[in-house]
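HOLO CASE FILE
Compound: zinc ion
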Amino acid sequence: MADSSAQPIAKYRSDYQAPSYTIENVALDFDLEPTATTVRAVSTVQRLDPQVGDLVLDGEKLELLSLKVNQQEHQHYQLSEGQLSISDLPERFELEIVTQINPQANKAFEGLYQSGAAFCTQCEAEGFRRITYFLDRPDVLATYSTKITADKAAYPYLLSNGNKVAQGELDNGKHWVSWQDPFPKPSYLFALVAGDFDLLQDSFTSRSGREIALELFVDKGNLERSEHAMASLKAAMKWDEQRFNLEYDLDIYMIVAVDFFNMGAMENKGLNIFNSKYVLANKQSATDSDFLGIEAVIGHEYFHNWTGNRITCRDWFQLSLKEGLTVFRDQEFSSDLGSRAVNRIKNVRLLRSHQFAEDAGPMAHPIRPDKVIEMNNFYTLTVYEKGAEVIRMLHTLLGEQAFQAGMQTYVERHDGQAATCDDFVNAMQDASGKDLSLFKRWYSQSGTPVVSVQTQFDAAKQQFSLTLSQSTPATADQPEKLPLHIPVSIELLASNGASIPLQAGGKPVSEVLELTQAQQSWVFDAVAEEPCVVLLQEFSAPVKLDYSYSSEQLLLMINHASNTFARWDSMQKLIAGWMQQAVAKVQQQQALELEPAIIATFEQLLQDQAIDRGLLAELLTISSENEIADNFQEVDIDAIAKARDFFIEALALALAEPFAQLEQRCAEADQQSLAHSDIAWRSLRAACLQFVGFSQPQRVAAAYFESSLMTDKLAAMAAANTAAIEQRNSMFKDYEQQWQHDGLVMDKWFALEASFSGGDALARVKALTEHPSFSMENPNRIRSLIGSFANNNARHFHAKDGAGYCYLAEILTLLNKQNPQVASRLITPLIQTVKLDKQRKAMIIEQLEGLAALDELSKDLYEKVSNGLQQLKG
Ligand code: TRP
Ligand code: ZN
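Model generated. C-alpha cells follow.
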C-alpha cells in the first residue's frame, strides 16, 4: 500500500455479532446491457435490534440511481467506501434501491460479469454487493424473486434460482423471464445467467417419486462433450439418497458451463455455474482424470444443496462447515463409485504436497480461521481438504452408523438455518453419545501434528507395548499448541505377514487408538513374536509420523498390510528414505546408486499379476518434488530434483524389460471404455511410460500417435517430458496443431510446456503468453501456463538468478488490478518458502517488497504479501 492510512483491516471470528436488521424477501429486476445494466431491488426489511438505528448495507463498484423507503424518495443516507448507511427508518419497511453496473468492465469475475457473450454471476463469498446494496452476509436469509429483461436474439435463455414463474416479450426486441426461489437463502447463493447455449435435458425421479427436470447449458457445439456431466449429476442424486438419506428439493436443477471462472464451480441454489473445465469432456479431448474430476465436482456442488444451501454458514469463519463436509461427501461419492484406495492415495498426495506446506507457511490458519482480511483468501486446501480430513476423523471415531445418525440430527436441528462448526460437532456428539469436546480443537488449532512412536516387546510376557507422543510445531499464526484428539488406526503384523489380533486383558481391542494426551501407551497381549506395527491405516489422521521403520519392516508392510493405503504408504516411506540419503549425497557431491533391494521390490511389483491395477499404478508413481520436499526441514530444490531424476532413470534402465512388457500388456488389455477397470489399465500404462521413455522412446511416441484417447496421448507427452525424448517436439507440435482452436484442451499442453525441465523453461513460458490460444484474461490459461511453471517446475522457477521470482512478480503486478482472486492464488509458490536457503529468501523478499509498494494493492495480495514478508523476515 502506497498510502499506509488505507491499510486493509482484519476481521476477527470473536467479533461476530448477529445482524441488527434482516431482509425477509427481495424482488430483483435486471435490465441487462453489457456496459450499463440496471438493477432494481425491492426488499422487505425488518429491524431485529431495537438499539440500532441505521441500516448499513454493503456495496462495491455500484452507481446508486435511486433510493426509496415505503415507495417514498428517501434522503437520509450516506455513501462511503463499500457502504451505504441509511437512517430515519421505521421498524419494518419496503426498501427500493436502483443501481447501475458495468458487467463488461468486470474482469475480476465477481458479481455480474460477461463470460464470452453470456452474462453470469459469482456471488460467493462477497460478490452480491457488486450487484446491489445489500446485507451481504450469510446469516441473512431471504426469499428471492428475479425478473430478467434482455435482448431476445442475443440472450434467448434467461436463468435464475428456483422455478420459472412467468415470461413475456417486449416490442423493442427484448424479452423477460421471472423466477422464484421458495427456499430462503443467503445472498452468496444468488445466481443469474443470460445467453445463448446448447441445452442437454434429462430428468431424475427422486425416491419419493418426484420428477426433477435436469438442464445442462453449454456453449454452442459442445453437446457432444456434456453427457458425462449429466450422468454424474444423476449418479450424485441417487447416491445422496442412498448413502446420506438426502433428497433434492426443487423441481428443476440447472447447470451452466462458462469459460471465464475463477474457481471450479459454484453451488448457487438450483442453478450451479461451472468452470467449463468441470463439465466438458469426451474421450478425444479429455483425460480419465478430467472425467473423474467432473464426477467429483458435479457431485460436490450437488451435495452442497443440503450441506451448504439448506444449512448454510453463520459467518465466513465457519466456511469449513459446508466445505470440509461437502469435500468429505464428494470423496466418499468418488470412492463408492470408483476405487476407494486410489482415491485415498490421491487425496493424501494432495494433502502432503500442498496442504502441509500451507499449514507451515505464512498463511497458516485453523480449518476455522480466526482472522481474515480478504475472505477470498480462505478458500484454501486447509479449509477444504484438511476440513474434510477432520470430518473423516469423526467418521472413523463414530463409525458409519453413528456418523449418519449425527448427520440426521444435524439436518433436523439446523435445516433452514445459518449454523456453526460447533453446531455440527454437537449434533455428532449428541447423536453418538461420544465426548467430542477435545476433538473440537481440530477446528481452532493450525499446523500439522507430529506423532512419534516408541515400541517395546516383552517376549516372556508375550506383550507388545506402543507409546505414541504428539506435538504440533508452532505456526505463523499460533505460537502455542495443545494436544489433539487423534485417531490412530493400527495393525500388528507377524514376520510371515499374518495379522495379529489386537487384544488386551483377554478382550479384543479396537484397531482405532485414540490419542488424546501428549503421550499415551497401549499394551497388547498374546503377541507371540515382535510384531511390525502398521500405523495410520487409511491415513486415519492428517499428521506426520516420526518413526524409522527398517527396510525389512517396510517391505513386509508393502506386501502384507491389510489396508491398501498402508501398503502404498510404506512404499512412499521406502522411497522417501532413499531420497533423504540421496539428497545428502548430492549435496556432498557423492555418486548416487539405487540399492538392489529397491530394484527388486519394484521388479516384484511389476511381475505381480494379482495386485489391483490402479493401486499398482500408484505404487509405481514416484512422489512429486513437492511431496519429497515435505520430508525435509530445509529444502534444496536442485538436490531434490537431481535425486528424483536419478531414481527414475536408474530404475527405468535397471528394469527396462519388465516396464516395457507391462506397458505393452496394458495397451492390449485396455478396452478403451470409461469403466474403472479400463481407467486402471490406462493409469498403469501411464505410470510405465514414465520409465519406458528412457529405454524405448519409440514406444512413447507410439502411445501418442497410435491412440485416439486423450488419456494415452497426455501420458505419452508427460513421459516425453520426463525422459526428454527426441520425439517430444513432433508430439507437442501435433497436439498444438490439432487443438489450438480450443483453449480448454490447450491448457494441458500449456501445463506440460511449463513444467518441462528441459531447455530454458522461463523463456518458453514468456513466449507462450503470446501464443494465439493464450489469454491473460482467462484464469484457466493463467493457471495452466504460469501456475504450472511456478508450482511444478521448481528448478526453473527457483533458478538461482531470481529470474523466476521476478517474472512471477511481474505477472502478479499485472493481475493485481484486473483479477485479484486469481493473482492471490498464483502467489502461493512465492510465499510458501520458509524452508529455502538464505540467498533465495533474500531475492523473494525483494520481490514481495516490490509488490507491497504497489499503488492500489488489492486486499487479497496485501494479506498474502504482508504475511509472507513477516514470516520470511521474522
Ligand atoms: N463454494 C464453491 C465450491 O466449493 C467455491 C467457489 C466457487 C468460490 N467460486 C468461488 C469461492 C469464488 C470464492 C470465490 O465449489
Ligand atoms: Zn464447495
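CASE NOTES: The mean pLDDT is 98. The chain has 27 helices and 35 strands.
CLOSED: yes
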